[in-house]
Specification:
Elements lengths: L9 H12 L5 H7 L3 H4 L1 E4 L2 E4 L7 H13 L2 H8 L30 H22 L13 E5 L6 H9 L8 E5 L4 H10 L5 E6 L6 H17 L5 H4 E5 L2 H7 L6 E3 L16 H7 L1 H20 L6 H15 L4 E6 L7 H13 L17 E4 L10 H6 L6 E8 L5 H20 L3 H9 L5 H11 L7 E8 L2 H22 L10 H16 L7 H13 L2
This protein binds 6-O-phosphono-beta-D-fructofuranose.
The site of 6-O-phosphono-beta-D-fructofuranose has 14 residues, from loops.
Length: 545
């Protein structure tokens, strides 16, 4: 991949000028001026309808942004992404989560061997899952497993947890719990809910060194040994890891260790054996459908022209707002309770990937990179933080995601849910002018003085950008496609921002210091820190009792 500082491109200069001319852009009027606006900014890919027309841009903006992608050599970068090139340069690794969902007959020669390895590990996982689900693999005393505890954190937790939650309608007889936080109360609340005799524990850790995961796994293993027996640990504890040695040391039997590959980053790993808890919770056929959906998006991202490419155009919008409008954040609002964990999952996927301030040449960056990601399901979020989006002082581009068909037959509910979904993007764009407010108030029983006083507070500025992602139905396949869409958006942003999206050195320092403080707490040596931390440690220690 070429290292190109985006701010040195001709398109960047053009965009800077263009932005100045667009400062007074009137979104509502733009639909009047351009009757083809919806077509110009909507991309349809089978069951995905992505409408970007309610954004602060013209067709010229789109052209220059797409030109920026070309100038940053995105097309070549996409080729490298689907090859064996070690584009995760700072960790000397390939980035091949797409190989996990590529059918062997569709794999190019460069990735064939990776796809073969992925298939072998998937087959091992599917065989294991099917044995658990059909009852042929049983607990230490011959009972069927009915519960799974996934022990992991970050990418070894968020992806599986989000997908398992999202596909609740597909759950089978095996119930999955997730333990991630090193907070002992998290473990305690989980063990209250489970029967150790019929529970399978999956320790998911690529490195098998993560403090939280090993602490939780040890606590659960010790509890299990006490409640059931130490001899049964081998039958009830399995591992997903690339560190086989450490997993064996922990007490997992060699044949129960499912490999993870170096060429798959934690936050992109739910498609691999990391998704074991998903496969156990929804079955292997549904897990395969999840992979198929992701592959569909992989093909679209690889083959579609940049102008008609969903992840590319979404990424360019992010860059447009982040770097030219100086928007700090992006909000994700799924209109389905099933996707309640999507914002948390995307926080790691996006912020751990693109929260970087050193470019691919190792130099400090003097432009903005990754933005803040937040969100919650609609309609609940309308009653929580929408006030700030509608009338606050910040520009917050929003993704509205919904599904045309609901899972269950409550037409009245679904119609109301969708009415809210459509109404919000309309309201954010149209706003409400002072004239409209006055007209409304005149119809009220308020006195003229009261009307005058109230009027400014009821004005909605409008002109707030939203992208609408309308998908036919939430299924394992469409969910896979949606997640892959965001993965490729992350990649595109990283290429254009000239950063390495696949490392996460920024999380190391906190880990090292936590270990040091843990030792200090044990030995009660509080003085080797800054005054604030020393005082806090002493205060904490004094309260332990
Ligand atoms: O938070 C840093 C991180 O390395 C993530 O990237 C990763 O998903 C998580 O920790 C867990 O790591 P592991 O799977 O090695 O336990």
């Amino acid at each position: 991949m070429k290292n190109i500082n985006p701010t040195t491109t001709t398109s960047w200069e053009t965009l800077k000028e263009h932005y100045k001319n667009l400062k007074d852009f009137d979104l509502k009027q733009s639909f009047v001026k351009n009757p083809n606006r919806v077509d110009n900014f909507t991309i349809i890919n089978d069951d995905f309808y992505v409408d970007m027309s309610k954004n602060l841009l013209t067709t010229s903006t789109k052209d220059v942004l797409t030109q920026l992608a070309r100038e940053c050599d995105l097309e070549k970068a996409i080729e490298s992404y689907y090859s064996d090139q070690p584009i995760n340069v700072t960790e000397y690794r390939e980035v091949l989560h797409t190989a996990l969902r590529t059918p062997l007959d569709k794999a190019n020669d460069k990735i064939k061997s990776y796809v073969k390895d992925a298939l072998a590990s998937k087959e091992k996982m599917f065989a294991y899952v099917n044995e658990i689900l059909d009852g042929s693999r049983t607990t230490h005393d011959g009972q069927p497993f009915d519960t799974v505890v996934n022990i992991g954190i970050g990418g070894s937790d968020l992806g599986p947890m989000m997908v398992y939650t999202a596909l609740e309608a597909y759950h089978n007889q095996v119930k999955v719990h997730f333990v991630s936080n090193v907070d002992g109360d998290h473990v305690e609340e989980t063990l209250k809910k489970i029967n150790p005799e019929t529970t399978l524990f999956i320790i998911v850790s690529k490195s098998f060194t993560t403090q939280e995961t090993l602490t939780n796994a040890t606590t659960l293993r010790d509890w299990f040994s006490k409640e059931v027996s130490t001899d049964a640990v081998g039958k009830h504890f399995i591992a997903v890891s690339s560190n086989v040695e450490r997993a064996i040391e922990f007490g997992v039997e060699k044949e129960n260790i499912f490999p993870m590959f170096d060429w798959v980053g934690g936050r992109f790993s739910l498609w691999s054996t990391v998704g074991m808890s998903i496969a156990l919770g929804i079955g292997t056929a549904n897990f395969q459908a999840l992979l198929d959906g992701a592959h569909e998006m992989d093909v679209h991202f690889r083959d579609a022209k940049l102008d008609d490419n969903i992840p590319v155009q979404l990424a360019l919008l992010t860059i447009w707002y982040n770097n030219f409008f100086k928007a700090e954040s992006e909000v994700i609002i799924p209109y389905t309770q099933y996707l309640q964990q999507l914002p948390a999952y995307l926080q790691q996927a996006i912020m751990e990937s693109n929260g970087k301030s050193i470019d691919r040449d190792g130099k400090p960056i003097d432009y903005q990179t990754g933005n803040l990601i937040w969100g919650a399901p609609g309609t609940n979020s309308q009653h929580a933080f929408f006030q700030l989006i509608h009338q606050g002082t910040k520009l917050i581009p929003a993704h509205f995601i919904a599904f045309a068909k609901a899972k269950y037959n409550h037409p009245d509910h679904h119609q109301k849910l969708m009415a809210n979904f459509f109404a919000q993007t309309e309201a954010l764009m149209n706003g409400m002018s002072m004239d409209q407010v006055k007209e409304d108030l005149e119809k009220s029983k308020l006195t003229e003085k009261e009307q005058k006083l109230l009027a400014p507070f009821k004005v909605f500025e409008g002109n707030k950008p939203t992208t609408t992602i309308l998908i036919d139905e939430l299924t394992p396949k469409s969910l896979g496609k949606l997640i892959a869409m965001y993965e490729h958006k992350i990649f595109t942003e990283g290429v254009i921002w000239n950063i390495y999206s696949y490392d996460q050195w920024g999380v190391q320092l906190g880990k090292v210091l936590a270990d040091r403080i843990n030792d200090d707490l044990k030995s009660k040596k509080f003085n080797g820190h800054d005054a604030s931390t020393t005082a806090l440690l002493k205060r904490f220690d004094s309260k332990l009792g």
